[in-house]
Every structure is written in C-alpha cells, then in structure tokens.
Write the structure tokens for this entry.
Amino acid sequence: MTTDLKSIAILIPGRLHPHAVARLEERFQIVRAERPAGDAVSSQHAAQIKGIAAMTRIDASLIDSLPHLEIVSSFGVGYDHVDAKHAATRNVVVTNTPDVLTEEVADTAIGLLINTVRELPKAEQWLREGRWVTEGPYRLTNGTLRGRRVGIFGMGRIGLAIARRIEAFGLPVSYHNRRPVDGVPYRYFGSLVELAANVDTLISVAPSTPQTEKAVNAEILSALGPTGVFVNIGRGTTVDEADLAAALHDGTIQAAGLDVFYDEPNVPENLVSAPNASLLPHVGSATIHTRQAMADLVVDNLIAWFSTGAALTPVPETADLGKRG
C-alpha cells in the first residue's frame, strides 16, 4: 500500500466542502477542475489522477478520461449523481458518507412533520407580523399527531432512526421497502400503495433509483386520503410533483412537508403556492457539525484506500472492489 500520500493526485471537480479541501491539501496532491467533465482536465493531469473527491455529478465520460482512477469519494449519503455502475466496470470503487448524517436527517424529518401538521412556521409568522396583537390568537389547527399511523417508505439507516423517534410519540409504524428488513419489528407492506392505504402519514426516505422515479404519484396520494400527510426527506425524484401539487390544492391529502425537490433549487410555483405545504431548502443534514463529519468521511475514505487498501464505506455497486490489490 502507498505510504507517501503526497505522491497521489486527487481531483476536486467544482466545489467541495472547505473542511474536506483543507484536509486533502494537507495529505495529497490536489488537481482542481471548474467543471466535472471528461475534457475538463489536461491529459497530463488526467494521467496522474488516482482519486476523485466530489459533491457534484461524476459521469462515465469523466471516469473514462482518467486512466489510473481508483476511487471516487462522494460527499453525501445519496450518490445518484455518480455513475457507480459504470465505475464498477472500470474497477473504480465509489464511496459515500452514510451514518454520520443519519441522526441529523431523522431530526429534520420529525421537525418537518411537526411543522407540517401543526403549522408552526405559519403561527410564528402570525406573531412576527403583529397579528396576535391585532387579530388575536392563531387559529386552531386541523392537524395533530395524536392518533396518527405512520408509514415509512425506505427503511434504511435513516428510516430506522425516524421510526425510533415516531415510536417515542406513541404512534404505530409500518414500512415499505423492496423487501422486508431482518430484525425490524414494524409491519411490512409489499407495495407502496398498500402502505399508503393503511396509514395516514407517509414519510419518504427512499433513494433515487429508476424503480423509485415518481413512485409517489396520484394513486399513492389518493390511497393516503384526505387526512393524509406526506413528508419527503429522501430524494425529490421519488415524487411526481405535479400530482402532489394537485393533491394539495384539491384536498386529496391534508398537507405535505418537503425538504427535497425534483429539480433543485427550482421549486414549482404550484407547490410554493400551496397553503398546506411546509417547504425547506434541502437542509436535512445542514448543520456545521454534521457537514464537517461528512467532509471528514470523504477524506478518510481516500486515506484508507491509499494507505490500507480498503475503503471505509463503499457503495453496494462497488462493494466487491472495496479492497485495493
């Protein structure tokens, strides 16, 4: 294994968390590129680069342009912006940053759920606008967590952390995954529509995959029903936003809380204008503490790969490549 990490060139395409950049500059040679494209790096640099540290799209053309590339260390638990399947065909390991953001995102999911059901942001705005003085107390809300049944779409690390928090509220939890999760005590439903029909609160933590593309659509929202609340803390691509906006405006469901969107940062006006929607600008893991921990894991994966020969958190598509020969 390599002991002189300063002899290894790491590409940083576009921007990266400054803590990660500072640590990488201490340990490796750094090559910067303004854009993550196959022609963005000179042929001289391309021949030297063995690793990528990124929080932007890494496609097949960039991977193919780097003949000695061994590892792509991606910032974030979701890695749909990296062509991991193509990387695997090139014997390039891909890593992400799971676990370190699990609790933060789960906290955000619960906060968003409460904001959505109890309309707390609107109540705060009522106070700030002086309307408590001029018009009296904020109106009683239709929504409450009392008596609700919660379904989780995507029972991975974050889904489990959310489920534990929901249990603390004394509410029953069910879930839908591709398959049941061993050791999980919650009721499993084999399809998303079955789950939606048996709960009144649906929290999506599903990853972005071809199978989950617009999985939450008019059928699912109709099954959730007029007292239904939908929360998305996972990926915006899992939701048909036109169907969701229509369901909010026509009363198919009661309310929605969203931290992620299909085409970020562009949020459809028909969602922004929905009075029964609580919207956040993708802040699920956005604390200094957690983002620094994610940045550390990006760097630690690279250090581990080049110094010990094993990546710390390889993604499933490249897990078999998690040992450096």
Summary: The chain has a mean pLDDT of 96.
